[in-house]
Amino acid sequence: MTSTSVIDELKRAQILELLEQGKRVDGRALDESRELKIETNAIPKANGSARIYLGDTEVICGVKIQPDRPFPDTGDKGLFMCTAELLPLSHPTVETGPPQPPVIELARVTDRGIRESHMIDVSQLVIEKDKSVVGVFADNVVVDYDGNLFDACSYAATAALLNSKTPTWEMVDEKPTLVEGEEKQLPINTIPVSVTMAKIGNYIVVDPNGDEWDVMDSRVTITTDSDGNICALQKGGSDGFTQDEINQCGDLSIKVGAKIREQLKSVQQETQ
Amino acid sequence: MADKRKYVIPGDVITSGPFRPEQNVVLEGNNIVATAVGISEIYEDSVKVIPLTGKYIPKINDLVIGKVISHTSLSWELDVNSCYVGFLPAQDVFGRDFSTHADELSSKLKTGDLVAARIANFDRTRDPLVTISDRDLGKIDDGVLVKISPSKVPRLIGKKGSMIQMIEMATNAAVTIGQNGWVVISCETEEGLSKAKRAVEMVNEKAHIANLTDLIKDMLDGKDES
Q1: ipTM score of complex
Q2: Alpha-carbon gap, residue B25 to B14, rounded angstroms
Q3: What residues does each domain of chain A span?
């Protein structure tokens, strides 16, 4: 977002006061994430898509799969890229124009979580080594903002990828040519789930909403894979975490992530 | 009393004839055409459209709730839920002998503070000038901010303040209503606070219903019993 939103002091006081009593402004437990709703096939013409609601945060993700040239040093691997952007409609402070640092961070954290979990087996996406590979592009767009875009974009992209069907290409005259009528699921290794935790005062809250996002001192986003291994981590905000707090966040991300993974799994099963 | 109330969308011809166009209408030839979605009202000599939603348009002498968003060395800027920002000059708080060298603005009001203010001057060409130097105006220290649509503020107040009095009586809460749709509710008890908050939100959602007062009354009473 371009200009930061200013939270009123009364709300800040209320959030801090409630945390002292172990409560949150929207009545959730400290380690409880908001309700996640996933709608697949939000964009019928895309190779895969999803629209997700995380509380009042809403994100649409579309997946485009097309042949591309591989990077010179990784000719035996397909491409995967994930982006994220905010619609001016999503929040009063969002402006059009080139993305600002927080939005760039959002895209990178979302991309990294999925990439480093090795969710997609890119080695299976090769049409001809060093010449042509399949590229998978997941593009997120935030439609409505109420905090925690990191997780919302990650869930949207993951759901869209699980929902994707990839066409098949073969090399004809040095050019990748579409093989009609052959569609299959992407080669999926694992389901990454990102969990963002905010530190407000001395309290750690999972999945901060818009108000909590404005109040928090620092945050950490941890992505885990299906085996419960941590594969990506991003810390933000001016305050620090103690070693105990980071350990606590790690445990939380595995615990909370497991529940969300079940929801994402059902998307995968529907597509099969 | 206004007659011929009807729902209009932009472009609808409300009436034609010798009427004065007021809020949200324009005169096109002889026709008076709506420029907003809302309810049209034809008075004896004027026509206006009460919008169903929209940002707050400042009016002189309105009481508003503002949020400090930034300050310069001479003034504060207030978010007043409008397309304009409220301009609060430092002299208003520090008095006439305000000096940019000696007085630090953030010592009195800092970013994020809520204030009850009055629109002192506004003519649409410049940002509205607001003042907090009056009785009952100034920084708000406790309570909860509830945001409703500015067009529904008259409904929340009710005829001669009937609606708001009823809510205040039933919950023992103090409700400060800004004409800009921002409402601050403070109450000694947690229960009264949440009930008053629910009542205000209910008015916002159901402003178009005819017997809203009874509905709110039922809600306030019903919760008393449980």
Answers
A1: 0.73
A2: 9
A3: 32-271
Strand extents, DSSP E, A129-261: 132-144, 165-172, 175-185, 193-200, 203-206, 218-224, 230-237
Residue B169 burial (C-beta neighbours within 10 Å; 0-12, 13-18, 19+): exposed
Distance of alpha carbon A169 from alpha carbon A178, whole angstroms: 4
Nearest CA in chain A to B144: A10
Determine whether the interchain pair A12/B112 forms a contact, defined as Cβ–Cβ distance below 8 Å. Answer: yes
Closest residue in chain A to residue B140, using alpha carbons only: A10
Report chain B residues whose CB lies below 8 A from the CB of A9: 110, 112-114
> Number of Cβ pairs closer than 8 Å across A and B?
27
Q: Which CATH superfamily hosts domain A32-271? A: GHMP Kinase, N-terminal domain (3.30.230.70)
Chain B residues in contact with A10 (beta carbon < 8 A): 114, 140, 142-145, 184
Nearest CA in chain B to A4: B69
The half-sphere exposure of A47 on its side-chain side, counting CA atoms within 13 A, is 23
User: All domains of chain B, ordered by start, with CATH?
Assistant: 3-51 (2.40.50.100), 63-140 (2.40.50.140), 144-225 (3.30.1370.10)
Do A10 and B140 count as a contact with CB atoms less than 8 A apart?
yes
Nearest to A114 by CA among A171, A193, A177: A193
Residues of A in CB contact (< 8 Å) with B are 6-12, 14
Verify whether the Cβ–Cβ distance B113 to A8 is below 8 Å.
yes
Pick from B67, B145, B184: which is nearest to A6 by CB?
B67
Spell out the per-residue pLDDT of chain A, length 272, in tens: 445 677 888 889 989 999 999 999 898 999 999 999 999 999 999 999 999 999 999 999 999 999 999 999 999 999 999 999 999 999 988 988 899 999 999 999 999 999 999 999 999 999 999 999 999 999 999 999 999 999 999 999 999 999 999 999 999 998 999 998 888 999 999 999 999 999 999 999 999 999 999 999 999 999 999 999 999 999 999 999 999 999 999 999 999 999 999 999 998 888 87
CB-based contact B112 A14, cutoff 8 Å: no
> 3-class DSSP state for residue A211?
helix
- Nearest chain A Cα to B70, which residue? A6
CB contacts of A14 in chain B (<8 Å) are: 144
